[in-house]
Amino acid sequence: MYVAVKGGEAAIANAHAWLAEERRGDARVPEIGTDAIREQLTLAVDRVMAEGSLYDPGLAALAIKQARGDLIEAIFLLRAYRTTLPRLGASTPLDTGAMTVRRRVSAAYKDLPGGQVLGPTFDYTHRLLDFALAAEGLAPPATAEADPGEDAAPPRVTGLLAAEGLMAAEDASDAEPGDLTRTPVAFPAGRALRLQNLARGDEGFLLSMAYSTQRGYGNNHPFVGELRQGEVAVSLTPPELGFEIEIGDLMVTECQMVNQFHGSRTEPPQFTRGYGLVFGRTERRAMAMALMDRALRGAELGETAEAPAQDEEFVLSHSDNVEATGFLEHLKLPHYVDFQSELEAVRAMRAAVEAERSRRAATQPEMEGPEG
Amino acid sequence: MSGLLPGFADPVADAQSAFRAVLEAVARPGRVQRLPRSPAPPAPLSPAAGAVLLALVDAETPLWLDAGVTAAEWAVFHAGCPLVAAPGDAAFVLATGAPPALAVLDPGTDEEPQRAATLILQVATLEEGHGWHLAGPGIEREHRLRVAGAPDGFVDAWAASRARFPLGVDVVLCAGDRIAALPRSVTIREG
Amino acid sequence: MSGYNFAYLDEATKRMIRRALLKAVAVPGHQVPFGSREMPLPYGWGTGGIQVTASVIGAEDTLKVIDQGADDTTNAVSIRRFFARVAPGLATTERTAEATVIQTRHRIPETPLREGQVLVYQVPQPEPLFRLEPRRSETRRLHALADYGLMQVKLYEDIARHGRVGSSYDHPVMVNGRYLMSPSPIPSFDNPKMHRSPALQLFGAGRERRLYAVPPYTEVRSLDFEDHPFVPLRARGRCSLCGAGDSYLDEVVTDDRGGRLFVCSDTDFCGERQAMREAAE
């Protein structure tokens, strides 16, 4: 006799227990602490903070531990926490010009005021597995004292170009930008919301979309005008005080891409900006964001949008990995009610086709083709 | 396989040296290059033909050759290449006697001219300075090359092949430890 | 570095690349697909050039590596160090005249090249038509038909709009009158140096998996129109270090009040000239 399947609660409890066991792994191996994750998997922490839209290395480390290293799952955890937080106010705009740089490079100039500061980069390492790292307990080699350059806050490259009149001016606005976590985005979204969306978009998505513009699907001619990484102060002007107070520092990466612009009826030929600003040392994300910002400025600059990367609605609607992974993975959920009606529909269509075929065979047997 | 003659004495360095000579030969058609680090392949293969073969041929390149069983065994053992019966199926064609007609070798396609066959052609001697007049990419004004033992009617067959450019066959001429190349881009006039 | 073959690549990979290079030389300007390998440096850093160099060099060679014309740029230093590690016996140099193989990103040395030298270009985007037709299946057909109307139209539109051909770098060239080719992102100033150069020029694009070549003394014509001839661009002025008035110049920003000076991008050329001037004094 058939007994209908039940017992969902027990199944879920068992799955969670097993998940906890798997997360811990072999109990003979010491448990990883969130402090170790925060200190040693810093770039994972930075990515989770950036896409989680929450600057808190400790919580990001916890999310990574809980998610067993699945960064999208960790981002999801952080987002779910973030949404419970009260919104107390908006900071004044960050002054990245006053950043204490730990890394600052320009691909546009060989040398410039403030110099090129490589910082702790993978860029010129040879990607050969370093088996010495597999041995534990080795102290890292002492590094030379970090040299912040002659000037801890070097001038911006785009400022140098602007001084010569070669950099297109941006529309300045003191209006408080919208908040896409509180108000659904309507299209056209405008640059401020676009940048917000890109700043927390999936790194892989941004990377691939930006890469497509480099391969001809949406033209651009980008130069890294400047990439800078370091700490900036966050300030707030509480209405009850009426003056600015500093509330802390953020580690951020800013990328300013410089693109040639041939000019239009109203604008002379000059360089236009693609802008990226992200939490942490997430340089790849900052660069991809800057390329995408420029690609999505086509309408404003009188360019025709031909490629996916230039389509604002397409890009902004598909960049969020918490949304994307949710909808994609929901296909695992039961769909048997819908599937039942699909089954019935397919069976009915097949029956109709069969009936038609038999009817034709009965009336015109000589017309049957070899593949019929 | 006892008695099989050795290949390159130093497979890495000798292959590089042979390749550079072929690259230089193809880049400067008609200039004669020496291959001092050639192996001593079984007769009738010349040291140069043996070196070119081992430098370029392997399991990915079907080979046709007319040099007999011992030479074929040597080539298969050292290069690991598959042998084919029809010259038109070969990526590399090694001829020690009268070669197959250029027209039957794979000329590549309009979109993939790089798929064309390479003909390694053993001749009696190669001498610069007189003989054929060569012109084309890689040649400042004109190179002269005397080829003793070139197949009958080669210059006419070459002209017909040249007319199909960028399709065509690239030839490496070998004599003793010397080589010269005729990439498909070159034009030949009798001297 | 133990555990790796000479010049890092295994012999089968080198043979594959070598065969592709020979076909590339035989069909000047034609892009030959090749089985590009993952290298220990990232795509975009010069993996194509590195693979070509690794397949060409031997212990008797003398290698020079430049990026932006300079031997001391970080990426040039890194690549030169890589080869010094993986190719025992290989000599390296910063002198153009002494090198047998020169790997470059974005420049052709000022010192004229000679026979016997191989110039290896790092190429990010081998397809000259990619901005006009992004589908490689389609551009391959256009190359087969030698149908370069798209590019002619684009250049014509540039002239109509700006009074000059628009590309200041990576300006497309016709090779041997047959194939349209990307010279790699060298400044258009360098384009004329490709024409009938005595050296062999090889191009490697690792990420896009293409190789191509220009044999010595081959015609390389920068695309233009009779009434709007190709004019290479260069910053007006002289090098502040060596005084050269005919070299390609880098702009160096000296302060944030508009201070600028110009220096040769080719550090070897500039250093030689400075040394000669000192010797003369």
UniProtKB/TrEMBL annotation, chain A:
GO terms for molecular function: lyase activity. GO terms for biological process: organic phosphonate metabolic process. Keywords: Lyase. InterPro entries: PhnI. It comes from the Bacteria. This is Carbon-phosphorus lyase complex subunit PhnI.
From TrEMBL, chain B:
The keyword Lyase applies. InterPro entries: PhnH-like_sp, Phosphonate_metab_PhnH. One of its GO terms (molecular function) is lyase activity. Keywords: Lyase. SUPFAM superfamilies: PhnH-like. It comes from the Bacteria. GO terms for biological process: organic phosphonate metabolic process. This is Phosphonate C-P lyase system protein PhnH. It comes from Muricoccus nepalensis.
From TrEMBL, chain C:
It comes from the Bacteria. The keyword Aminoacyl-tRNA synthetase does not apply. The keyword Repeat does not apply. Keywords: 4Fe-4S, Iron, Iron-sulfur, Lyase, Metal-binding, S-adenosyl-L-methionine. It catalyses: alpha-D-ribose 1-methylphosphonate 5-phosphate + AH2 + S-adenosyl-L-methionine = alpha-D-ribose 1,2-cyclic phosphate 5-phosphate + methane + 5'-deoxyadenosine + L-methionine + A + H(+). InterPro entries: PhnJ. This is Alpha-D-ribose 1-methylphosphonate 5-phosphate C-P lyase. It comes from Muricoccus nepalensis.
